[in-house]
Structure formats: C-alpha cells, structure tokens
UniProtKB/TrEMBL annotation:
Record key words, sorted: Cell wall, Glycosidase, Hydrolase, Secreted
UniProt superkingdom: Eukaryota
SUPFAM superfamilies: Pectin lyase-like
Protein name (record): Polygalacturonase
SMART domains attached to this UniProt entry: PbH1 (SM00710)
Annotated source species: Tripterygium wilfordii (Thunder God vine)
Example of a GO MF term: polygalacturonase activity
Similarity comment: Belongs to the glycosyl hydrolase 28 family.
Gene3D superfamilies named in the record: Single-stranded right-handed beta-helix, Pectin lyase-like
InterPro entries: GH28_Enzymes, Glyco_hydro_28, PbH1, Pectin_lyas_fold, Pectin_lyase_fold/virulence, RHGA/B-epi-like_pectate_lyase
Record flagged with keyword Hydrolase: yes
Location(s), subcellular: Secreted, Cell wall
GO biological process per UniProt: carbohydrate metabolic process
C-alpha cells in the first residue's frame, strides 16, 4: 500500500459530519484538487469521525480515501438527483431495466493506483429506498452499485465496512490487479440483489479475510451477459478468494450466471458458510456462450445450507430476445475438494446441458451431512462426466466411472 505524503481532510473543503448537511460539493472539490494538483505519490483524503451525507461522486487516480474510526460516508436517498450513465458494453443494457443505469454511489472509470481504506469506517448506501422501488416495480433504471470501478488497475480496498447497498456492493469491472481484504459487507437477508463482491471481466484479483452477510451471493465472478458479453470477450481470470466467512439466502461463492466472456483460473479456499441457500454455485445458461474452466474450491465448511453444491446450465435470465440459443457454454475442469457440511438439506446437483455436457468434474473428500432426523435427498446429475473419491453421501453414477478416475487422481 502506497504511503501518501500529501494529505487533506474533507473538512478543508467545507465537509460537515452532522448527518444532515449535504457534502456533495465538498467531496467533488476535494477530489478535483487531488486530480489537478497531481502531488507526487498521490494524495490521501481523510474523512474524520462523523456522518457525511452526500450524493454520488467520482474518485480519481493516485488517491487514498481514508475513513477514520467512526467516520460514515452516507448516500442521500434523493433518487431524483442520481446521475445516469451508459450501460456496460458487456451487458448491452442495465442489468435490471433496459437502457442506462444509475451511477454507483462511489464511482471510478479509467483509474490507476486507488486505495479505499481506514480504521473500519463505514460506507452506507441507505439502500432501502431503492429496494422498495424494486419490490414495487417502480424502478426506471438499474439500481446503483455501492462502489463500481471500471477500466481501472492497481486497486486496494481494505479495513472498511460497506452496508445497505442499493444493488451490488463492490463491482470491479474490466479491472486488473485488485486486492479486497479485511472488509465487512452487510445488508438484510431480504434486500434484493445486494451481492457482496462481484469481480466482472477482471483479472488478477484477490479477495480475502472478509465477512459478508447480504441478500444475495457473497462473492460472484461474472464476465458479461449473453450476446453482449460474447462480443466484448473479456474473461474473468486469475482470481483468488480465500478466508471468507458469511451468510445469505443465496450462494456463498458463485461463478455466474453472467459468464459470456469466459471465467477461468479461479481458486476459492478456506471458506466458512452459515445459513446459506446454496454453498457453492456454478451457474450458466443456454445462450450464454463463453466458458467456465479450471475452477477449484478447496477447504470449505458449511452449516445450515439448503444445497451444498450446485453446478447448473439452466440458471439466469436473458438481456433480450436476441441471444443465440446455439451459444452453449463450455464447462470443464472443476475441482471440489475437502468440503465438509452439517445440516445440509441436499448434498448437491450437477446438471449439464445435453448438447454441451459438463466434463472433468472432480469431487474429492467431500462430506455433506444431512439435517438431523431427516432422510437424505440424493445427488442429482445429468449430462456430466468426471470422478468422485471419498464423497458422502455417495454421488451420482456419472461421477463414479473407473475410466474417469484420472480426473481426480492427483487427490487420491
């Protein structure tokens, strides 16, 4: 982490942390100063204790946003003044609504050397007004993320609490060299689509040592949506996810379902999941195209989970009716090893596509124990090949063929 010799405070620009004063001008003025003064080594913007209400704002390169202990940057709930931006080219439209989308609360495009850190201060999206609009179907455009960094590299986010995002929490898209660690991400279990961290068409990403409890997937690796993601063609690759703990009614660690640009070389290890809908979820669909390959899940503990492992080719909606039904995803070389679960309602399902079976699936040393006093729901499999070693309850016959055991031989 780069040390910034040049330091300024939001109070130098008229910032008031009373929770009532609107600080948009102060944030924009401070960041304008950082951008145009161009101090050697960059500048640290210090947010002292207090609650700083503001509209959305853009970061700039070579800056550190530093939240002191007790500092809160809080989003205004005036949705009428929220800026609109163009849809992502790999999505072709807003993720929820056609057309543009609301800019993220804290935004950046084309940045280099950006740090968001502090002493566990809080970035609060006050998302309930947006959740209600979604539930009431009154949204005009796609809800804003809490933080989105686009086309950026050399990003560090750590020691910050993120809460009540309107939509996805942290969204690095078309980014590289990103480290997210020691963060806490919180949203109510019934808050819609409040994914924790969604690296999207990004590479060289490390997500570690964090606690996430939200209303959707804790971490979801994505790479574009249907024909738009195929055309953009930027994979997510070389991503490490480790030492994550959390809970959600949806998935713990997910791949997809938007994977049209491809997802490869992902390692998720030392994960602890509690009170989950699904523990591990690899998901794609007909029309997605792209690929999901060389994915490893290792040393995962899960407790009170609906379904332990799900790998599926029929998940997720489409951007529009122009997707190509012949664009079938390729799913191969997925390894799941050293996974233990208690109170698991169903151990798992692997449902490939008839015309594009999932191949090279390895299950090794997996023990998913059912809910006490109830009978196991068995594994469910179709259009899949691979191998299983030391798995209980014993999985489907498609994964137990002796001719396929070389898939798992390195773990025997």
């Amino acid at each position: 982490m780069r040390y910034r010799w040049d330091r300024i405070s939001i109070t130098d620009f008229g910032g008031v942390g009373d929770g009532k004063t609107l600080n948009t001008k102060a944030f924009r003025a401070a960041i304008y100063r950082i951008q145009h003064m161009r101090r050697r080594g960059g500048t640290l913007l210090y947010i002292p204790p207090g609650v700083y209400l503001t509209e959305s704002f853009n970061l700039t390169s070579h800056m550190t946003l530093y939240l002191a202990r007790g500092a809160v940057i809080r989003a205004t709930q005036d949705t009428q003044t929220w800026p609109l931006i163009a849809p992502l080219p790999s999505y072709g439209r807003g993720r929820e609504r056609p057309g543009g989308r609301y800019m993220s609360f804290i935004h950046g495009d084309g940045l280099r050397d950006v740090i968001i850190t502090g002493e566990n201060g809080t970035i609060d999206g006050q998302g309930d007004v947006w959740w209600n609009m979604w539930k009431q179907r009154t949204l005009l455009y796609t809800r804003p993320n809490l933080i989105e960094l686009k086309n950026s590299k050399s990003i560090i986010i750590n020691n910050v609490i993120f809460q009540n995002s309107p939509f996805w929490n942290i969204h690095p898209v078309y980014c590289s060299n990103v480290v997210i660690r020691y963060v806490t991400i919180l949203a109510p279990a019934d808050s819609p689509n409040t994914d924790g961290i969604d690296p999207d068409s990004s590479s060289n990403v490390c997500i570690e040592d964090s606690y996430i409890s939200t209303g959707d997937d804790l971490v979801a690796v994505k790479s574009g949506w249907d024909e738009y993601g195929i055309a953009y063609g930027l994979p997510s690759s070389s991503i490490t996810i480790r030492r994550i703990t959390g809970s959600s009614p949806y998935a713990g660690i997910a791949i997809g379902s938007e994977t049209s640009g491809g997802v490869q070389n992902i390692l998720a290890e030392n994960i602890n999941l509690y009170n989950m809908g699904i523990g591990i979820h690899v998901k794609t669909n007909i029309g997605r195209g792209g690929f999901i390959r060389n994915i490893t899940f290792s040393n995962v503990y899960m407790e009170n989970v609906g379904k332990g492992i799900k790998i599926a080719g029929d998940v997720g909606d489409h951007a529009d009716d122009n997707f190509n039904p012949n664009a079938l995803p390729v799913v191969k070389d997925i390894t799941l090893k050293s996974i233990w679960g208690l109170n698991i309602q169903q151990p798992g399902s692997i449902q490939g596509l008839k015309d594009s079976p999932f191949i090279g699936i390895c299950l090794s040393n997996i023990h998913l124990h059912g809910v006490s006093g109830s009978k196991y729901t068995p594994w469910q499999c179709s259009a899949v090949s691979g191998a299983a070693l030391q798995v209980s309850p014993w999985p489907c016959s498609e994964l137990t063929s002796a001719s396929q055991e070389s898939v798992c031989s390195q773990f025997s």
